[in-house]
Amino acid sequence: MIPLSGLVTDIYAPSMPTMASELQQSEGAVQLTLTFFLLSYAVVQFFAGSIMDSYGRYRITLISLVLFILSNLVIAMSTSLGPIYAMRILQGVAIGCIGVSKRSFFVDVHEGEKRKHYLSLMSIVWSIAPIVAPFIGGYLQHFFNWQASFYVLAGYASVLLLLELLFSGETLPEFRPFKRKTILKDYGIMLRTPMFIYGVICSGLCYGTIMVFNLSGAFIVEHRMGFPPVVAGYVSLVMGMAWLLGGFLGKALIDRPFVPKLRAANMFGIITAILMIFSVAVWENLYSLVVFAFLVHVGVGFIFNNYFAYCIGRFPKMAGISGGFIGGSAFFITSISSFAIVGLVHPQDQAGLGTAYLGMTMLIMIILLFLIRPGKVRKD
């Protein structure tokens, strides 16, 4: 269940140029299908967490899976962007509920170091989706068409629904009364915890850096460089491997001093983005694009793994509402920042993509270098 959100965002990335052509729409109009999903995915999590803390995770997850299956079928049969926009918004709602439920699972059933271990592992497992999704999507586009990705998502979710019915159940250990004052008090506690808030923003910007490539990478590879969708899928596969590598490095160095290692990873990303921009005079082709983007993705993957795991485990007694707040806030920041930087820079080549990366990594630097003080990080 954990990689499902990544599959929904990435599997049809190699098909975006074809969707623009067949639906007779601009690149920006097709890119909005991703932005609408991310926005609804973010907003619903603000409410899903408190609802699940009061009424449980299981039934809401089942309903969300059914809605997700139906929405994919509608998208696959659509011939205009209007219904696709509507269904992508519905998918964001469904996947947001599923995401909150499954992130809360680890906090519901594990404690202490075991919880810390599984939350870090969760981030790595989640990173599988950006690896396999565009790779599969590239071949689906090559052998079938853009609709195939959504039929595959419907089939995958159908298998998950069956497994949930057969093997899963309610994990919430204690139902919290659904009271407005209690919920507002919980939000107040989170908002008054600076390291937690900085972590939410930082996680959103890190994943937003990945979304910059998802929004523009296929267009650069296919339209500007002239490669087929399968190649765009392989490039996205390499980007996913970079994100996974960053996650593994984050888990391997989980006991190292928290803030210094994040600052080092961020500085690595900034230097790489600068080199990506200024190296175009001597080295600009598909390989250079992949090498520099790969290194940037490793850096933000490392930061995300560490900080997202910290935030998820920070408030174990209100796992649902805190998980929803983290997911909602982080992915709201992801959707706004990635769409804004792509709209501002319009990356159409290596230098443009490097400029977008530089903008994102500099925003992360503001948090890690100027706002966070290492002594304020909790040891737990």
From TrEMBL:
Gene3D superfamilies: Multidrug resistance protein D. Keywords: Membrane, Transmembrane, Transmembrane helix, Transport. It comes from Flagellimonas hadalis. This is Multidrug effflux MFS transporter. Residues 1-377 form the Major facilitator superfamily (MFS) profile domain. GO terms for biological process: xenobiotic detoxification by transmembrane export across the plasma membrane. It is a multi-pass membrane protein. It is found in: Membrane. Signal peptide: none annotated. Pfam families: MFS_1. PROSITE patterns: MFS (PS50850). GO terms for cellular component: plasma membrane. The chain crosses the membrane at residues 29-48, 60-79, 85-106, 118-136, 148-168, 189-210, 230-250, 262-283, 289-312, 324-345, 351-372. GO terms for molecular function: sodium:proton antiporter activity. The lineage of its organism: Bacteria, Pseudomonadati, Bacteroidota, Flavobacteriia, Flavobacteriales.
